[in-house]
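Fold Annotation — chain and its backbone

Fields — amino acid sequence, structure tokens

___
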Amino acid sequence: MLFLLVVVSAIVLIKTQTSKTQQETASVVKGSFLADFPTFPLFSGANIVSSQHSNQTASYQAYLTSSSSVSEIINWYQSELQKDGWNLVSGPDSKQSDDQNIILSKGNMTATVNVEHENNVSNISIYIIIK
């Protein structure tokens, strides 16, 4: 009986530690960019759904929506980011009209901007990795 109690206590302790570790490695904010989100332009008229940061992968993510077209959004991000010193690594694919992405790099950062259009809404995902 004592053995069973020790095993159950150990499992509870491990689950508690895992939960604390997960909380410490991720921050999520709804409706705005996190305070420490890397400087990144916001497409005019886009609504920020949420943003998050993971210490584990040294990455930031933001999710936005817009009523603008995929090509308008992706072309704007490519132009604005290149004006700010970002280098285009790949994209966009001119054959796709409802799903586009670009990958850019600047210093120790790599950013992916993905835009998908469905149900009359363009969903914008921004993913930034810090090396």
In short: The longest strand covers residues 109-118. Residues 2-25 form the longest helix (24 residues). The domain at 26-130 is CATH 3.30.310 (TATA-Binding Protein). Confidence is low (pLDDT under 50) at residues 1-24.
